[in-house]
Amino acid sequence: MDFNLARGVDLHIIPTKQFKMNHVLIDFATPQTPTNATARNLLANLLETSTHRYPTQTALARQLATLYGAYVNLFVNRLGTLHTVRLHASFVNNNFVHEDLFAQVGELINEILFHPLVDDGEFDGPTFRLQANNLKSAIKSLYDEKQFLANQRLMDLYYQQDSVMRIPSFGRINDLADLTASSLVETYRSMIDRDKVDIFVLGDVDPQAAQQVFARLPFADRDAALPAPFYQQPAYELVQHRTDYQQVSQAKFNLAYRLPVYYHDANYYAGLVFNGLFGGTPYSKLFTNVREKASLAYYASSRFLPFNGLVSVQTGIKASDRDQVRDLVQAQLAAIQAGDFSTATLQEVQDSLINQYRAGHDIAGNVLEQQLVTSLFGQANQDFVTQIKAVTKDDIIRVAKMTKLQAVYLLSGEK
Amino acid sequence: MDKQVYQEFNQTIYRQQLANGLKVQLLPMAGYHKTYAILTTDFGSIDNHFIPYQQDEAIKVPDGVAHFLEHKMFEKEDHDAFDLFGKLGADSNAFTSFTQTSYLFSTTSNLHANLDVLLDFVQDPYFTAQTVKKEQGIIGQEIQMYDDDPGWRLYLGILGNLYPKDPMRIDIAGTVDSISQITPEILMASYQTFYQPSNMNLFLVGQLDPEETMAWIEQNQAQKTFPPAEVPRRLFSLNDPTAHDVIPFRSLTMDIVRPKVVVGLRGTKHFDDGRQRLHYKLAIDLLLDVLFDDTSDNYLRLYNNETLDDSFSYNFEMQRGFHFAYFSSDTNQLERFADEVIAILESADQQIEAARTRFEGIKNAELGRLIGLLDSPEAIANRYAGDLFAGASLMDEIQLLKSITIDDLYQVANEFITSQGISVYQVVPQHQ
């Protein structure tokens, strides 16, 4: 059930009795620019920390505790070239607590979004400094998560010099120095006044009552049009390589492939099945041949990013096996390109994707994510099952042939 | 088939123990598309010293056998169980903890056939020297993957401090060296001892019809013959049940940039009864919330003076034969973090007193969190701990939680917090 609260601000209500928790997701979307990711991430942290009525995080946390441990989190994300700030709230259904939690959580969301701890055009100084410092530490500490780090560095290698995609959705340490307690207010106003806003309410709720609660949020009209979020870049002629050395027990060896197939274009479902066959499911070529047969890795998988035109492969291996693994991964792609896979395996992969899709309906967060993508880019996934089943061997061969190796990254413990 | 109705949550659990001793529980969830099934044996990484099935002499098996066995169960002479699930459109997996090994699948179709695959592959061992050898490479990479994870090193490090001479100090997967000593014979002896139906339980949650499903399970089990049941004879005993062997401090350097620290607290209470144990666990969970959650003054003070940050977390784990809590954060003030956490623990009585007005809110928040888990078939089934909590379900936990009072917190604080049970472990950057 959809309501338009203002131009560019849409409310989507999904009544269901399946869950014991209610969920609210508010998505603020705008194209990513060279500078906005860091600012918006810091803004999300500031909004989540305190408000005018609840000026410390303890005051805000105590209010949430009285609402039966309701969660309200703000975080950033990216969909293709769009940068999004999201508020997610989850809280127990009214039936269990015999009070109107829904209205109270709606009230609190209003407070968090529209009454931040801003005075005289600036966020509270001590809160700003502490959150900026914490964000710096948090970004720094990503170095400590070696699998994440290897993937990040692969992306850095893959995306071209001037691309905003090289800036992670959570921002960069260097950009923090340019942000101030007053510049963040501009970031805030821009997000509240100009972003495309989508509000989703999922749970055992009365649509009219829910509509009334969210219609109170004082959003103004804005230009609702977002550019297409699909990221494309020309292919490199030469494969990009980089190796870093750190004290790690296991080498992380990752590869990036260009695959110009996008969400809901003619090859989209073939792309999903191709990825499932390459490394996206336990029935895939990578799992079967790199892990099970050659015993070279514990994990060897692929990921398809249908907003970015990209497939990435990640493995954890012995550094000395690097060439062997690289050849084996490439051989798996070549095998798919040559049609070297059985109908039985193809069927397993399709069934696995369909099972994941159906099971996804049982996870509230997943339902919300699906609805968000649908409302931003149109076309619901209603015929997902039919479309996946309709993918043929030739479709997969065609998509596999579009897949080109572009970047190879190794994080190694052995010089 | 026993039936227990939880009116408040509009849910019903069906229970039955089969003739061969297998305990089965079924929890239908209206409106769900998927069924989640998990088959668990009470055999984990700490069970490395036991008298094998129908023998007289105790054996010590290499570290990591339970986890190795978990990997090897899938592989059969002419097929892999993984593929059977795949052909039936299900996702399958398995995991091993200190005290349990679980095999699971999740499906939106062919429930009956998938259930047969699960029961059949776990009840049909097949190990050869060649397949054992192959798995050593894969698991070796798994162990090294965890070696590079500072969070896991912090966790294992504090366990090594709290239980320096007990098997919990070793990675659940063992070491590259210990798994090289594993043979098909060792796997088979472990299997025969711990994979008897009487040492296992099966839990299904989600879309299912209880009568029909129970009939399928009975039918499957009736077709097989099992050797006579024998209660597993474990020789597990703590090196020092009074915890005087705790190592107060160790640290590790890694190639990281943010220092990390954990304070551990080992409990020494002994429990005769599963419900008593669960009551204790829930009271400790609330106690830790009172002392450290984000509604506490302690948290705000330590956050604002940058002793801890958003990476701060605390947990309490109750396992078969041992229990402990741990508190960890990234911080540049390693000593201060440890000192502050220990000071709060040691002044628990005053802290509880000061939290009187917050107690109901904290309890409601914990209730809300547990009710939230009812939306996840996986959470409901994975949280079930069998005899450890006398068969309590998540719904039983929620009801028991409601009965806990602030007076219970004083009592568990006095029992749980002892100075000899406290320890600190750090993971620090190599260049500092």
How would you describe the overall organization of this protein?
The complex is a heterodimer of chains A (415) and B (432). By secondary structure, chain A is an alpha+beta fold. Chain A has 2 domains: 2-215, Metalloenzyme, LuxS/M16 peptidase-like (Cytochrome Bc1 Complex, Chain A, domain 1, 2-Layer Sandwich); 240-412, Metalloenzyme, LuxS/M16 peptidase-like (Cytochrome Bc1 Complex, Chain A, domain 1, 2-Layer Sandwich). Chain A has helices at 36-49, 57-66, 94-97, 101-114, 125-140, 146-158, 173-176, 183-194, 207-215, 268-280, 285-293, 322-337, 343-360, 364-377, 384-390, 393-402; strands at residues 2-6, 9-15, 21-31, 71-79, 82-92, 118-119, 122-123, 196-203, 240-245, 251-258, 300-305, 310-317, 404-412. Chain B has 2 domains: 2-234, Metalloenzyme, LuxS/M16 peptidase-like (Cytochrome Bc1 Complex, Chain A, domain 1); 249-429, Cytochrome Bc1 Complex, Chain A, domain 1 (2-Layer Sandwich). Chain B has helices at 65-73, 81-87, 111-122, 129-147, 150-162, 176-179, 184-194, 210-222, 274-292, 297-304, 334-346, 348-354, 359-373, 377-383, 394-402, 406-416, and strands spanning 2-6, 11-17, 23-28, 35-41, 49-51, 59-60, 91-96, 101-107, 200-206, 233-234, 249-254, 260-266, 313-319, 322-330, 422-429. With 432 residues, chain B is α+β, with helices and mostly antiparallel strands. At the A-B interface, α2, β5, α5 and α13 of A face α2, α4, α10 and α13 of B.
Please give a quick description of this structure.
Chain A is α+β, with helices and mostly antiparallel strands. Helix content of chain A is 44%, strand content 22%.
